[in-house]
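Issue: ligand-bound run for zinc ion - logging full I/O for the record.

Environment: standard queue, default settings, no custom constraints.

Inputs:
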Amino acid sequence: MIISYNSTDRTQITEHFNVSEFRCKCGGNHDTKLDNELIRKLEELYKALDCSKIIVNSGYRCTAHDKNVGGNGSGQHTKGTAADIVCYDKTGKKISSKKVCCAAQYIGFGGIANIDSTYTATHVDVRTGVKWYGDETVTTAYSVTDDFYKYYKLEKSDVYGKEKRSINVSVIVDGVIYSGELKKE
Ligand SMILES: [Zn+2]
Ligand SMILES: [Zn+2]
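Outputs:
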Protein backbone atom coordinates (compact mmCIF):
# COMPACT_ATOMS: atom_id res chain seq x y z
CA MET A 1 0.00 0.00 0.00
CA ILE A 2 1.38 3.42 -0.99
CA ILE A 3 1.00 6.11 1.67
CA SER A 4 1.55 9.87 1.29
CA TYR A 5 3.36 11.60 4.17
CA ASN A 6 3.72 15.36 4.36
CA SER A 7 7.20 16.82 3.95
CA THR A 8 7.80 17.40 7.67
CA ASP A 9 6.65 13.93 8.76
CA ARG A 10 9.14 12.07 10.98
CA THR A 11 7.26 8.81 11.42
CA GLN A 12 9.50 5.88 12.36
CA ILE A 13 7.93 3.28 10.08
CA THR A 14 9.96 0.27 11.18
CA GLU A 15 12.82 -0.29 13.62
CA HIS A 16 15.45 1.04 11.19
CA PHE A 17 13.58 3.26 8.72
CA ASN A 18 12.11 6.74 9.16
CA VAL A 19 9.93 8.39 6.51
CA SER A 20 12.25 11.44 6.49
CA GLU A 21 15.01 9.28 4.96
CA PHE A 22 12.89 8.80 1.83
CA ARG A 23 12.09 12.47 1.26
CA CYS A 24 12.68 13.79 -2.27
CA LYS A 25 16.09 15.48 -2.59
CA CYS A 26 14.75 18.34 -4.78
CA GLY A 27 14.32 20.55 -1.72
CA GLY A 28 10.62 21.15 -2.33
CA ASN A 29 7.94 20.79 0.34
CA HIS A 30 5.78 18.25 -1.45
CA ASP A 31 4.57 14.96 0.04
CA THR A 32 6.63 11.78 0.21
CA LYS A 33 4.99 8.75 -1.34
CA LEU A 34 6.12 5.48 0.16
CA ASP A 35 5.02 1.88 -0.34
CA ASN A 36 5.02 0.09 3.01
CA GLU A 37 5.96 -3.12 1.20
CA LEU A 38 9.27 -1.41 0.26
CA ILE A 39 9.97 -0.60 3.91
CA ARG A 40 9.00 -4.08 5.06
CA LYS A 41 11.41 -5.66 2.57
CA LEU A 42 14.22 -3.19 3.42
CA GLU A 43 13.84 -4.16 7.07
CA GLU A 44 14.14 -7.83 6.04
CA LEU A 45 17.26 -6.99 4.03
CA TYR A 46 18.74 -5.16 7.03
CA LYS A 47 18.35 -8.27 9.16
CA ALA A 48 19.37 -10.79 6.48
CA LEU A 49 22.69 -8.99 5.89
CA ASP A 50 23.20 -8.25 9.61
CA CYS A 51 23.65 -4.54 8.86
CA SER A 52 24.75 -1.81 11.25
CA LYS A 53 22.99 0.73 9.04
CA ILE A 54 21.45 1.21 5.62
CA ILE A 55 21.80 4.67 4.08
CA VAL A 56 19.05 5.69 1.64
CA ASN A 57 20.72 7.84 -1.04
CA SER A 58 17.49 8.31 -2.93
CA GLY A 59 13.96 7.29 -2.02
CA TYR A 60 10.89 9.07 -3.33
CA ARG A 61 11.42 11.45 -6.28
CA CYS A 62 8.92 13.90 -7.72
CA THR A 63 8.70 13.91 -11.52
CA ALA A 64 10.92 17.01 -11.88
CA HIS A 65 13.66 15.62 -9.63
CA ASP A 66 13.55 12.21 -11.31
CA LYS A 67 14.21 13.93 -14.66
CA ASN A 68 16.98 16.05 -13.07
CA VAL A 69 18.87 12.92 -12.00
CA GLY A 70 18.54 11.24 -15.36
CA GLY A 71 15.24 9.39 -14.99
CA ASN A 72 12.29 9.59 -17.35
CA GLY A 73 9.98 11.12 -14.74
CA SER A 74 7.81 8.05 -14.30
CA GLY A 75 10.14 5.40 -12.87
CA GLN A 76 9.81 3.39 -9.67
CA HIS A 77 11.21 6.22 -7.51
CA THR A 78 8.32 8.49 -8.58
CA LYS A 79 5.81 5.89 -7.38
CA GLY A 80 7.36 5.56 -3.91
CA THR A 81 8.31 1.96 -4.55
CA ALA A 82 12.11 2.30 -4.89
CA ALA A 83 15.23 3.12 -2.89
CA ASP A 84 18.92 3.48 -3.76
CA ILE A 85 20.81 2.17 -0.76
CA VAL A 86 24.26 1.53 0.69
CA CYS A 87 24.42 -1.24 3.31
CA TYR A 88 27.02 -1.31 6.11
CA ASP A 89 28.13 -4.34 8.10
CA LYS A 90 28.69 -4.53 11.87
CA THR A 91 32.29 -3.34 11.51
CA GLY A 92 31.12 -0.21 9.66
CA LYS A 93 32.31 -1.40 6.23
CA LYS A 94 30.17 -1.08 3.10
CA ILE A 95 28.70 -4.40 2.03
CA SER A 96 29.34 -5.27 -1.64
CA SER A 97 26.29 -4.64 -3.80
CA LYS A 98 26.94 -8.09 -5.30
CA LYS A 99 25.91 -9.54 -1.93
CA VAL A 100 23.10 -7.01 -1.53
CA CYS A 101 21.71 -8.00 -4.95
CA CYS A 102 21.72 -11.69 -3.98
CA ALA A 103 20.03 -11.06 -0.63
CA ALA A 104 17.47 -8.73 -2.25
CA GLN A 105 16.68 -11.43 -4.81
CA TYR A 106 16.13 -13.95 -2.02
CA ILE A 107 13.82 -11.53 -0.19
CA GLY A 108 11.82 -11.00 -3.37
CA PHE A 109 12.35 -7.41 -4.52
CA GLY A 110 10.98 -7.10 -8.10
CA GLY A 111 13.64 -4.65 -9.26
CA ILE A 112 17.28 -4.92 -8.18
CA ALA A 113 20.44 -3.42 -9.68
CA ASN A 114 24.01 -2.54 -8.88
CA ILE A 115 24.22 1.16 -9.74
CA ASP A 116 27.87 2.18 -9.30
CA SER A 117 31.28 1.09 -10.51
CA THR A 118 32.57 0.43 -6.97
CA TYR A 119 29.77 -2.08 -6.34
CA THR A 120 28.57 -0.46 -3.14
CA ALA A 121 25.27 1.19 -4.15
CA THR A 122 22.17 -0.83 -4.99
CA HIS A 123 18.78 0.09 -6.39
CA VAL A 124 15.87 -1.97 -5.04
CA ASP A 125 12.16 -1.67 -5.79
CA VAL A 126 8.97 -3.61 -5.18
CA ARG A 127 7.54 -3.57 -8.71
CA THR A 128 5.20 -6.40 -9.57
CA GLY A 129 5.13 -8.21 -12.90
CA VAL A 130 8.29 -8.52 -14.97
CA LYS A 131 11.43 -8.46 -12.82
CA TRP A 132 14.37 -6.13 -13.36
CA TYR A 133 17.75 -7.61 -12.37
CA GLY A 134 20.28 -5.05 -13.54
CA ASP A 135 23.93 -4.12 -13.39
CA GLU A 136 24.19 -0.51 -14.50
CA THR A 137 27.96 -0.74 -14.93
CA VAL A 138 27.15 -3.04 -17.87
CA THR A 139 23.86 -1.71 -19.27
CA THR A 140 20.64 0.01 -18.29
CA ALA A 141 18.81 -1.44 -21.29
CA TYR A 142 17.98 -4.91 -20.05
CA SER A 143 18.22 -7.35 -17.14
CA VAL A 144 21.65 -8.94 -16.99
CA THR A 145 20.55 -12.16 -15.33
CA ASP A 146 17.66 -14.04 -13.78
CA ASP A 147 19.85 -15.15 -10.87
CA PHE A 148 22.38 -12.89 -9.14
CA TYR A 149 23.97 -15.82 -7.30
CA LYS A 150 25.03 -17.27 -10.67
CA TYR A 151 25.85 -13.87 -12.17
CA TYR A 152 28.20 -12.90 -9.34
CA LYS A 153 29.32 -16.50 -8.64
CA LEU A 154 28.29 -16.33 -4.99
CA GLU A 155 26.97 -19.01 -2.66
CA LYS A 156 24.45 -18.45 0.11
CA SER A 157 27.30 -18.84 2.61
CA ASP A 158 29.19 -15.97 0.90
CA VAL A 159 26.20 -13.70 1.34
CA TYR A 160 24.99 -14.61 4.80
CA GLY A 161 28.30 -15.50 6.45
CA LYS A 162 29.93 -18.86 6.80
CA GLU A 163 28.78 -21.45 9.27
CA LYS A 164 31.59 -22.81 11.39
CA ARG A 165 33.81 -24.85 9.07
CA SER A 166 35.75 -26.84 11.64
CA ILE A 167 35.22 -28.50 14.99
CA ASN A 168 37.72 -29.37 17.69
CA VAL A 169 37.89 -33.08 18.45
CA SER A 170 39.78 -35.21 20.91
CA VAL A 171 40.33 -38.93 20.62
CA ILE A 172 41.85 -41.27 23.16
CA VAL A 173 44.02 -44.06 21.76
CA ASP A 174 45.64 -46.40 24.25
CA GLY A 175 45.29 -43.82 27.01
CA VAL A 176 46.83 -40.95 25.02
CA ILE A 177 44.69 -37.94 24.17
CA TYR A 178 45.04 -36.63 20.62
CA SER A 179 43.42 -33.24 19.92
CA GLY A 180 42.96 -31.56 16.62
CA GLU A 181 40.71 -29.77 14.22
CA LEU A 182 38.36 -31.60 11.98
CA LYS A 183 37.63 -29.54 8.88
CA LYS A 184 34.45 -29.85 6.90
CA GLU A 185 35.00 -29.66 3.15
ZN1 LIG B 1 10.84 16.66 -5.35
ZN1 LIG C 1 17.05 3.73 -8.07
